Amino acid sequence: MTRAxxxxxxxxxxxxxxxxxxxxxxxxxxxxxxxQGFPDYPGPPEVLDVARAAIGTAHDQYxxxxxxxxxxxxxxxxxxxxxxxxxxxxAEVLVTAGxxxxxxxxxxxxxxxxxxxxxxxxxxDSYAAGIAMAGGVxxxxxxxxxxxxxxxxxxxxxxxxxxxxxxxxxxLLNTPHNPTGxxxxxxxxxxxxxxxxxxxxxxxxxxxxxxxVFAGARHASLATVPGMRERTLVVGSAGKTxxxxxWKVGWLCGPAPLVSxxxxxxxxLTYVNGGPFQPAVAAGLRLPDEYFAGIARDLERRRDVLVxxxxxxxxxxxxxxxxxxxxVDVRPVQPDGDGLAFCRALPDRAGVVAVPTVVFYSxxxxxxxxxxVRFAFCKSDAVLAEAVERLGRMG
Length: 395
Ligand SMILES: Cc1ncc(COP(=O)(O)O)c(C=O)c1O
Fold this sequence. Notes:
By secondary structure, this protein is an alpha/beta fold. It has 14 helices and 13 strands. Strand 3, helix 5 (126-133) and strand 4 form a beta-alpha-beta unit. The longest helix has 24 residues, at 289-312. Residues 37, 98-100, 124, 174, 178, 206, 208, 237, 239, 245, 248, 250 line the site of pyridoxal-5'-phosphate. Pfam families: Aminotran_1_2. Belongs to the class-I pyridoxal-phosphate-dependent aminotransferase family. GO terms for molecular function: kynurenine-oxoglutarate transaminase activity; pyridoxal phosphate binding.
């Protein structure tokens, strides 16, 4: 007899993601899909051309487990160029299958069953699953929207402190933050660093949106706060910076003993990935400063188009400081305040697809995200204009 249910108890509750449901809905209804966060425009030719040229060469075979030396050096140079530490490309950099594998491998490598992970929510959806796969326990702390809709999301320090128990092992921080668009300030990073040091926490810093930051905000890595380098792993992703989310090339940097632990887990997950993409990402990371400033300026313009359109459609937005997402409160146009119901009806009401933010919350705090919905603005001018026009005619 086989044993049912087949899904292990560790993964109970992690069904098919709402992203898949909403993307299918977009296709079925011919809606403009502002749900999933992937750009509909290509990456820089300097990067794409290197990948094309690498296919059909030795890059098609297994790269070295930690990543090709050229990419590890490019990661280290890039991190240092943008204000991070000097990392040794051989011992302190690991190339991964996207940021997702870096995060999951780190959780699998660093957590004992029952170890607790302190993190903010709403949270990127792979965190809770990664913690569960590692046998850990998530201790989510809610970020709070500004009461009058203006200004950044914040957290309550007492609430944060209360989430840190003697079982706490790791702090997982995502800045710039998906889905709120918040960039944690230097002062907030100082509070988090003090807490990590006081409780001897390891830190996993998901900084995949490091370059998608708009005027008025400034990204700083938690690893750069004094005392944090030796306990922090910083995670990055080529997908976000070079518009190549399907390549799934990511990396992490940190002190050698932590990187070595993660490498042990990673080698049995994928071992390696993205052979021909690795030299291409190396070329991308070496692009001049202007490329990185340019993508932020470009996205800021797209943000403004969408935020203006959402506001005009009667959907209040907390204007994102970074990333390619904007979150709205649906209550003015959905009297029961149900963001999931709003998203399921939006293709009929407006021919647009978005994702309900409730899926970024643990069940404990789901009520805080029930009325929130996320729209992506990493879309071409024509697509954004069409979405805004349709939202303006929402029934
Ligand atoms: C906060 C955050 N971390 C990690 C990832 C995953 O990155 P990758 O596609 O490189 O695995 C995403 C993708 O949306 C994200 O938003």
